[in-house]
Amino acid sequence: MDTFPEEKDIRMALDAITQAKKINPRLILDLFHDHIYTGVHQAIADRDVDAIIKYGRVMVSTQFNEIMPAITLFDKHWKNLDDANRDIIWKYLHVLCTLSVKARNAA
């Protein structure tokens, strides 16, 4: 959020995720698994931003949900991020993928 403080889409994505978490903390992980992990876990592992952008465009046009604004931010902002921010995002997504798999295996 600090990198693009004027960006309303980022604020909306964070607000949607925060509200979903208040309602059902597991909902965020389930949404991530169902709508991000299943579609782009290999692209995340490969750090393939083009595949993630393509996936985000398709998903927004066919199956919008609370987590989609977050994935579409790649399309709009990736080119403006420095390498350090990109690396942090890749690491964060990798952690989310790992947690998603562990939570599914534990359930």
Can you put this structure into words, describing what you see?
The protein is an all-alpha fold. The chain has one domain (8-106). Helices cover 80% and strands 0% of the residues. It contains five helices and no strands. The protein has helices spanning 8-23, 25-46, 49-62, 68-77, 83-106. Helix 1 (8-23) crosses helix 2 (25-46), helix 2 packs across helix 3 and helix 2 crosses helix 5. The longest helix has 24 residues, at 83-106. The model has no long low-confidence stretch (mean pLDDT 81).
The termini sit apart by: 32 Å
Which structural class matches the secondary elements? mainly alpha
Point out poorly predicted stretches. none
Question: In percent terms, what proportion of residues is strand?
Answer: under 5%
Q: Sketch the major β-sheet.
A: none
Mean pLDDT level: 81
| Number of individual domains | 1
Oligomeric description of these chains = single chain
Gyration radius, to the nearest Å? 13 Å
Question: Helix share of residues?
Answer: over 70%
Number of helices: 5
Broad shape: globular
Helix-strand sequence: HHHHH
Number of strands: 0
Summarize this, please?
The chain has helices at 8-23, 25-46, 49-62, 68-77, 83-106.
Descriptive terms for the model:
single chain; 107 residues; mainly alpha
Topology:
Elements: H1 8-23, H2 25-46, H3 49-62, H4 68-77, H5 83-106
Helix pairs in contact: 1-2, 1-4, 2-3, 2-5, 3-4
